[in-house]
Amino acid sequence: MSTELSEGQGLDGLGEQATNGKTRQSDICSGTTGGSMVSIAEYYAGKNVLITGATGFMGKVLVEKLLRSCPEVKALYLLVRPKAGQSMQQRVSDMMKCKLFDRVREDNPDFHQKIIPISSELIQPGLAISPEDVERLTACINIVFHCAATIRFDEPLKHALQLNVIATQKLLSLAQQMHHLEAFIHISTAYANCNRRHIDEVIYPPPVEPKKLIESLEWMDDGIVRDITPRLIGTRPNTYTYTKALAEYVVQQEQDKLNIGIIRPSIVGASWQEPFPGWIDNFNGPSGVFIAAGKGILRTMRANNDAVADLIPVDVVINLTLAAGWYTAVHRPKNAVVYNCTTGGINPFHWGEIEHHVMSSFKRNPLEQAFRRPNANITSNYLINQYWILVSHKFPALIYDLFLRLSGQKPQMMRIFNRLHKAIGLLEYFSSQDWEWNSENMTMLMNQLTPEDRKTFNFDVRQLNWPEYIENYCIGTKKYVLNEDMSDIPAARQHLRKLRNIRYTFNTLLVVFIWRVFIARSQMARNIWYFVVSLCFKFLSYFRASSTITN
Ligand SMILES: CCCCCCCCCCCCCCCC(=O)SCCNC(=O)CCNC(=O)[C@H](O)C(C)(C)COP(=O)(O)OP(=O)(O)OC[C@H]1O[C@@H](n2cnc3c(N)ncnc32)[C@H](O)[C@@H]1OP(=O)(O)O
Ligand SMILES: NC(=O)C1=CN([C@@H]2O[C@H](COP(=O)(O)OP(=O)(O)OC[C@H]3O[C@@H](n4cnc5c(N)ncnc54)[C@H](OP(=O)(O)O)[C@@H]3O)[C@@H](O)[C@H]2O)C=CC1
């Protein structure tokens, strides 16, 4: 079935009345922002903020930080869609109940009054925002943070284009109608240009003119699009990075009309410090890999030990995003400013080191009901990896499934491994090579902040202590993703000891079995075997005799 690309239709009601927001807002706001003397929290005071993707991983942290560190913010308008049988109000109210908001709740129990959910399905015409809501938003919004995207690596091109590019275009059109807009902040990814080794803080020419691509894909059915996708994305690994690159270009096209900042985070991981260390709520990127390794399921993965693991904590990304919003609105740079939000050039850490710290952390703080003892190894060698997949993934899965079948249960391990292999297969591109990001704008932005803001909105990754961060990250996956209780750690350790004993017993039986088979075929093996057995027997007799004499 063909998915409709409704660009023209989608812009109806948004784009028509578009005006040149930049000129107009400069007139309105020139007196209100007092240059760089205004602190970040002071800037956001009294402001109406529009956020897309607020129910997602980064969006939630953005909402939380704004409410906590900019308590005078006037209101947060969240574009949310109903999903999985839940209304958008229900989703937002569930979100606000989650642990992430504990600190805000403590500071201000009525914080929910500042949150205004707006029903919106971004891939629908006009973003599916009601005319009344469009009017409301255009009248009051001061800053837009556009976080929504599909981040799936296997997303069909048409859908990725609809959400990551066309919806961004529609949002830009809406933004241009906003009478008091001061900044439009777009969240991109450091991997949008992963077809390059060195990436500067500039928008590179798009692989194809987005408008032309949208027009061509409109008449193609999904099958044809699937067939031509590899040709279109070229040396990029997936539709995600490809469409994020197109989106950057689309955003840049509006730089004459809007004040734009583009944030390019690398691999976003658990929080470093805020609201508490190790907060994470999903399996994306490395988190799923860490969990699979901690559960003893993942034993091998293709990654380069010496390649830089460009992880960036989510709170760092959000602090930089809020600072960029402030800077964009206050300084109104002529062109869109791109911020490569990465760690590799400033405080590098490597995949080999990550492996070491993840493994030792899960040994100290084991996950419950591990399949095997955590012991994952990474290798850049394809054949070695395939060997370990066979020996350490497929063989144990086969045995376990056999055991499940024999005990009348449904086999499941092979299915889990197949899904895991699909997931890590999609991630390997990022863990097997190095990129070099220039992050001068991140440094420039830091230098613009007051000492107080530098502390409150800390994105100085030079201070990041990696081993400590990874330890908190692993504990975070246990506490917040798997909802496991820390008080169960002794039982989990006991379980690991049991697994170790099972492994020793299994290995011993295996050696004996192989040896017996060998003995049956070789006279020399038989002689050695009898020699060893008689030696053991003599030793035991001696031991027994000497203990009888002593008694
Ligand atoms: C100790 C070792 C150190 C070395 C460690 C190297 C780490 C090397 C990381 C590089 C990381 C680059 C990141 C680029 C930086 C961006 O640009 S960030 C954007 C990041 N985007 C993502 O990470 C999305 C990737 N995920 C996907 O595209 C989809 O989830 C997948 C993998 C295609 C699977 O889709 P699906 O089959 O429809 O199903 P889905 O419900 O999504 O998940 C299915 C199963 O896969 C599991 N899964 C999902 N994601 C993962 C994952 N990342 N890992 C494992 N399992 C996963 C789920 O838990 C789930 O398991 P069950 O709960 O069903 O048992
Ligand atoms: N996570 C990472 O490692 C990185 C992320 N990024 C970028 O950061 C941004 C946020 O990523 P992250 O928070 O991890 O992603 P998530 O997948 O956690 O969140 C995506 C958000 O987009 C919303 N969304 C998706 N489709 C629609 C739609 N059709 N209509 C309305 N809303 C929709 C989701 O809403 P819903 O809950 O309804 O599905 C959700 O709130 C993205 O732009 C991503 O490209 C960049 C680099 C790394």
UniProtKB/TrEMBL annotation:
The answer to whether the entry has keyword Protein biosynthesis is no
| Residue span(s) of domain Thioester reductase (TE) | 51-320
EC top class named in words: oxidoreductase
Q: Which BP terms in the Gene Ontology apply to this protein?
A: lipid biosynthetic process; long-chain fatty-acyl-CoA metabolic process
Q: Give the stretches traversing the membrane.
A: 504-522, 528-545
Gene Ontology MF terms in the entry = alcohol-forming long-chain fatty acyl-CoA reductase activity; alcohol-forming very long-chain fatty acyl-CoA reductase activity
- Region Disordered: list its residue ranges: 1-29
Enzyme Commission number(s): 1.2.1.84
Q: SUPFAM superfamilies, alphabetically?
A: NAD(P)-binding Rossmann-fold domains (SSF51735)
Name the domain of life this protein comes from: Eukaryota
Tell me what topology the record assigns in the membrane.
Single-pass membrane protein
Record keywords: NADP included?
yes
* Alphabetical keyword list: Lipid biosynthesis, Lipid metabolism, Membrane, NADP, Oxidoreductase, Peroxisome, Transmembrane, Transmembrane helix
* InterPro entries reported in the protein's UniProt record: FAR, FAR_C, FAR_NAD-bd, NAD(P)-bd_dom_sf
Q: Give the record's GO CC terms.
A: peroxisomal membrane
Q: Quote the catalytic activity from the record.
A: (9Z,12Z)-octadecadienoyl-CoA + 2 NADPH + 2 H(+) = (9Z,12Z)-octadecadien-1-ol + 2 NADP(+) + CoA; 18-methylnonadecanoyl-CoA + 2 NADPH + 2 H(+) = 18-methylnonadecan-1-ol + 2 NADP(+) + CoA; hexadecanoyl-CoA + 2 NADPH + 2 H(+) = hexadecan-1-ol + 2 NADP(+) + CoA; 16-methylheptadecanoyl-CoA + 2 NADPH + 2 H(+) = 16-methylheptadecan-1-ol + 2 NADP(+) + CoA
Describe the location of the Fatty acyl-CoA reductase C-terminal domain by residue ranges. 393-484
- Annotated Polar residues bias: 17-29
Q: What Pfam family does this protein match (any one)?
A: NAD_binding_4
Primary residence = membrane
Which family is it part of? Answer: Belongs to the fatty acyl-CoA reductase family.
Under which name does UniProt file this protein? Fatty acyl-CoA reductase
User: Whose protein is this, by species?
Assistant: Scomber scombrus (Atlantic mackerel)
